[in-house]
Amino acid sequence: MGPVEECCVKTQVAIIGGGPSGLLLAQLLQTRGIDSVVLERKTKAHVLSRIRAGVLERGLVGLLEEAGCADRLHAEGFTHDGTLLSYGDEMFRVDFAAHTGTPVVVYGQTEVTRDLYAAREASGGPIAFEVEDVRIEGADGPTPSVIYSQGGQMRRVDCDFIAGCDGFHGVSRQAIPLDQRQEYEKVYPFGWLGILSETPPVNDELIYANSERGFALCSMRNANLSRYYIQCSLSDSPEDWTDEGFWEELKRRIPADQAAKLVTGPSIEKSIAPLRSFVCAPMRWGRLFLCGDAAHIVPPTGAKGLNTAASDVHYLHRALTRFYETGESDGIESYSTDALARVWKTQRFSWWFSSLMHRYPDQSAFDLHMQVAELEHLRSNQAAQKAMAENYVGLPY
Ligand code: FAD
Ligand code: DHB
Question: Which residue, 16, 27, 304, 318, has fewest beta-carbon neighbours within 10 Å?
């Protein structure tokens, strides 16, 4: 740490983490005249280089509209009314629009974050990049602060509230004493190898495939940018996979007619993500609120990570706005309960969809029959499809 000399600013809400949760919260607060300071550990270029989620629920789209950040999304995003599921040689479609009246929007997390940064910069809201040694003080009392160093100088933000939006590996969750938080976790025995390629998507809707060689997902970002994933071993690294090896494996996992029309090309990004379910409860400790991946992780099947981060932001923004506009702290008191009620439901959906679509190393013949029976039930039962569609497009806030 640098010299003890401290440079101090005062704000209403100190936001740790400049990912989608932190930036969305900052912009929503800004529309209500509530000041915040965003502290981000990395550079903006680094944050924007992370390729992650691609499917936005109606609720997140609504929050981006409210934050004044949805123009490009409406111009460039793709509305999807349904998705395809395949197993073996069978394929069927779940129609979101017919079952729920609501579509999802395909628009990358990278683009959402880019739009949020543009809005933050246009509004002159402060963001400090490359902050180090971030420490939370006094969150259990009336005058919290965040201490950090930047360019070798120690700095302090005094605030009314702290939003911990610093992802799974951040410091905010660790600031809650161990004896006052519970952590619930399930680690899955496989990962996802994902690639991005400048090729037209194989299909105009997403395809989730359960094959005997493991799960595969065909997704997209735009008309000439495809995102594909295959289930891989946890011991694999991206360098183990050539582009040719990836395409061959993908073709073997999706229906033959889709494989025949798959356009392949060089990958422009290749990465592996492990699969994990994780929840920290409570999500509030005094004047510290956890939001997004700082509090919970879902396995990616069903694209709930970013969308669940957004629902936390909804509850927190609503609670803080009510506090500043009316002096009432009931939303603050119930933040953790409100957010967790929805978090557990999205955990259930992500766990269910992951369990349905992947091959497990220790799967018995009985387990396999259960998967096929569940897929056939989903294929043939409109009530089951409706339940899936309701969860996929996003449960109400
Ligand atoms: P993050 O995006 O993690 O942002 C947290 C920010 O805090 C980061 O910018 C980080 O640099 C910063 N930070 C961390 N520590 C500190 C600190 N001490 N001080 C200051 N700043 C700090 N979801 C899907 O729905 N579909 C997907 O396909 C998908 N793929 C994913 C792939 C990977 C590899 C990962 C990690 C996640 C993926 N997710 C996916 C999940 C989704 O991207 C996250 O749920 C979403 O990014 C959560 O946003 P967040 O702002 O809460 O956290
Ligand atoms: C994407 C990721 C998902 O986990 C998912 O269920 C759908 C799409 C994607 O990155 O495009």
Answer: 318
Q: What angle do CA 38, 39, 42 make, to 5 degrees?
A: 125
- For the four alpha carbons of 369, 371, 376 and 381, in that order, the dihedral sign comes to positive
Task: Compute the distance from residue 184 Cα to the ligand 2 centre, in Å.
Answer: 24
Whether 201 lines ligand 2, by a CB cut-off of 6 Å, is: no
Cβ of 253 below 6 Å from ligand 2: no
pLDDT along the chain (397 residues), means of 10: 66 98 98 98 95 95 98 97 95 98 97 97 96 98 97 96 98 98 98 98 98 98 97 98 98 97 98 98 98 98 98 98 98 98 98 98 97 98 98 97
Which helix (H) or strand (E) segment holds residue 27: the answer is helix 20-31
Question: According to the model, what pLDDT value does residue 6 have?
Answer: 63
User: Does any ligand 2 atom lie closer than 6 A to the CB of residue 108?
Assistant: no
> How far is the centre of ligand 1, averaged over its atoms, from the C-alpha of 51 (Å)?
10
CA distance 89 to 38: 49
Instruction: Name 105's bridge partners.
Output: 56, 79
The pick from 80, 228, 229 for probing ligand 2's pocket by mutation, whose C-beta has the most ligand atoms within 8 angstroms, reads: 229
Look at residue 343 and give its three-state secondary structure.
helix
Candidates 355, 115, 126; CA nearest to 231 is 355
Distance CA 155, CA 6 (A): 5
Active-site residue set? 80, 208, 300, 304, 392
- Whether ligand 1 lies within 6 angstroms of the CB of 39 is answered as yes
Say how many C-beta atoms besides its own lie within 10 A of residue 101's C-beta. Answer: 10
SS3 41: coil
Point out the ligand nearest to the CA of residue 196. Answer: 2
Measured between alpha carbons, how far is 286 from 100 in angstroms, rounded to an integer?
Answer: 38
- Which residues pair with residue 39 across a beta bridge? 16, 128
Q: How high is the pLDDT of residue 151?
A: 94
- Provide the total of helices (H) and of strands (E) in the chain, helices listed first: 13, 21
| DSSP state at residue 293 | G
Ligand nearest to the CA of 217: 2
Q: Does ligand 2 lie within 6 Å of residue 305's CB atom?
A: no
The pick from 106, 276, 293 for probing ligand 1's pocket by mutation, whose C-beta has the most ligand atoms within 8 angstroms, reads: 293
Give pLDDT, residue 1.
Answer: 43
